[in-house]
From TrEMBL:
One of its GO terms (molecular function) is metal ion binding. The lineage of its organism: Archaea, Methanobacteriati, Methanobacteriota, Stenosarchaea group, Halobacteria. One of its GO terms (biological process) is cobalamin biosynthetic process. It comes from the Archaea. Keywords: Cobalamin biosynthesis, Cobalt, Lyase, Metal-binding. CDD domains: CbiX_SirB_N. This is Sirohydrochlorin cobaltochelatase. InterPro entries: CbiX-like, Sirohydro_Cobaltochel/CbiX.
Length: 292
């Protein structure tokens, strides 16, 4: 038997924080790729600390629903799972390349635990960002005539935070699908506040690389970009700002295709998932494809 465990931050203050995690777990259950699918949270129940005890399978694949390598993926989650012999050096990562490491856990030593890198640095996340742009515009072929901004939090305390944003912005730029692609940040330059200064395109899709919608994606970023003076008043999609139409997508982690990235992480670690990737891509397709 094999089990998938999705671990995420969660929140005591925002009841919607855990919704994407549950949604992606449900999607993966429906395609039958694993005998068991469990979720665990840092700030909610069920807790990361207890989740391995709820699993019956001998082979367990743990996938962190986090954007970047750092404090949570390197310290908090391994500690809470009680991973025996965990050493971040075993990932041998440059901040973007953590794949997986196979260990046991102190309180469930009979199980083999495959601890994976975060979803946010997997190459499949690039496709989710593009899918998010398709979803918010309602156009499966969006690109020509559009600029795309990938937005991250950014912090000088963790250089890996910006690495993930730059990585995906560069990959989308290499696709040559959008007229312009720019990485922007909340807390460092170039800042999302000045989004219209960085694009010549009349239409700009803005995709925040966050796991869940919350304070930053629902309040800070819309107000910072000038979509509204007060987030409680709402705003249109698109909203015209300084002669540009801003198509604000909200957190990328709420996109259904995120389940695909979770599966990719587990498959990279050795999980046998059959045709689950194809099924998830088909079932989470939000906009009709050309010819449909």
């Amino acid at each position: 038997m094999q089990a998938l465990v999705i671990v995420a931050h969660g929140s005591h203050l925002n009841p919607d924080s855990s919704t994407p995690t549950y949604d992606h777990a449900d999607t993966i259950r429906e395609v039958g790729a694993f005998d068991e699918v469990r979720t665990g949270f840092w700030k909610e129940e069920p807790s990361i600390r207890e989740v391995l005890r709820t699993v019956e399978a001998d082979e367990v694949y743990v996938v962190p629903l986090f954007i970047s390598e750092g404090y949570f993926t390197e310290q908090v989650i391994p500690r809470e799972l009680r991973l025996d012999g965990w050493d971040v050096a075993d990932w041998d990562s440059d901040g973007l390349s953590a794949s997986h490491v196979t260990l046991t856990a102190d309180d469930v030593p009979e199980k083999t635990v495959h601890y994976c890198g975060p979803v946010g640095t997997h190459e499949a996340m690039t496709d989710v960002i593009v899918r998010r742009a398709e979803s918010v515009t309602g156009d499966p072929n969006v690109g020509e005539g559009f600029g795309l901004a990938v937005v991250g939090h950014g912090t000088e305390r963790n250089e890996n935070s910006a690495k993930a944003i730059e990585y995906h912005a560069n990959r989308i730029r290499d696709m040559d699908r959008f007229d312009e692609v720019q990485a922007l940040y909340m807390d460092e330059d170039p800042e999302v506040d000045d989004v219209t200064d960085y694009f010549e395109s009349e239409d700009i899709v803005v995709v925040p690389l966050f796991i869940a919608d919350g304070f930053h994606t629902q309040e800070d970023i819309p107000e910072d970009m000038g979509l509204t003076d007060d987030y409680r008043d709402g705003y249109d999609i698109p909203t015209e700002v300084d002669g540009h139409r801003i198509w604000y997508a909200g957190a990328v982690g709420t996109e259904g295709l995120m389940a695909d990235v979770v599966l990719e992480r587990a498959a990279d670690a050795g999980a046998e998932i059959g045709d689950a990737l194809e099924l998830v891509r088909e079932r989470t397709r939000a906009t009709p494809q050309a010819g449909d």
